[in-house]
Fold:
Amino acid sequence: MESLEEIKARIEAAVPGAKIDIVTNGGPSQQHSLRVDNEHACDVAKWLRDDPALRLDFCSNVTGVDWLDRTVKKTVKVKKVVDGEEKEVNETTEEKIPGHIEAVYHLYSMTHKHGPVIIRIRTSDRVENACLPSLTPIWRSAEFQEREIFDLYGVKFDGHPDLRRILMWDEFEDYPMRKDYREPDDYEYEPTPHDDVLERAKPYYTPRPQIDGAESIVEGSKPT
Amino acid sequence: MSEGIDEVLRSKLQQQGVWVSSMQELYNWGRKNSIWPLQFGLACCAIEMIATAASRYDIARFGGEVFRPSPRQADLMIVAGTVTKKMAPQIVRLYNQMADPKYVIAMGACAISGGPFKQGYNVLKGIDRYIPVDVYIPGCPPRPEALLHAFMELQRKIDEQKLSGANKAAHLDSEQPSEFPVPAFGKHDLEPPANPDVFHPPKLERV
Structure:
């Protein structure tokens, strides 16, 4: 399979106006991906599916990712003239990236037996009902997984044929996979709490009575 | 054990070929040796439950082999697996549809407390929040032997039930409820999150 750079160049030639970025993955897998802008996502996806050399006809997986507001520090070695002498200096730049929600598509080709090519589309912010174009019309297998992202992250997919909750019940209003989700307060019985759970269970604790030498058992504290 | 019969006299009579019993003993003996479980499974614990019902572990040895697919014909609900919040109302409804006398075994960590999913957003923290549980089996999942042990514990429990008096069996007491409210799907959680008439967690003392 051709490299991501080649794919990127061919997409930009085939779909005029499409903005493609290569998102690098610094992990051991080195699995880099293509970020596609929302306006051209459908056209790019269609091209990826139909291009005779790529023919990415199988969308195996769609995932959501919740990114909070973050700052990325980059350290670059720059040659600078300090005190009339040329030196290598580390220069740190900070980039603020506003929070967004991402949908990640893993694409394979059944025809050519290659893949994966990973594409990402991002919402502009993290408000409720943030929108993304649906790629279900291009890969039918994305239908349930886009519903799952809608259910757990609250991303509205435009053009999805049947966008409803899939795991949680219809009356549910929260988006539990979002990082700012707080689950309901039912910590009244936590026998082995630690960390966050300990903090949330503390309001339910009964103080231990101070009786010298007596076994500290409060009435009704024994399990029946 | 039957009350009011001298054990020594009873065994002497038995040696003479006379078998003496009480209504209570006969009634409990009949019930405990023919417990029909409700046939449903929720997660991996159900696989162990199936193994228990199959020939190797053979729950038929204890009179519990007739798994019924209808709650109307079942005595025992084995809550085998993770109860999600989406599933909980259906479990309570099935329990309500079972005819008295009825028993519940909470099988595995999930059915007891939510288990490894306790701090999740979608799993009920124990089925005892909505229906009364007779026997709890820890394990993830419990082995078939553990389920058989729970089954025998339940039989022991049935054997000790009284037919009359102040602490008679729940199904003979018209004061005791045999149906429990089905929780509704709320905006953030099930409503109510637990039935206070059923769920009495031990109070934890911490300094």
Summary: Chain A has a mean pLDDT of 87.
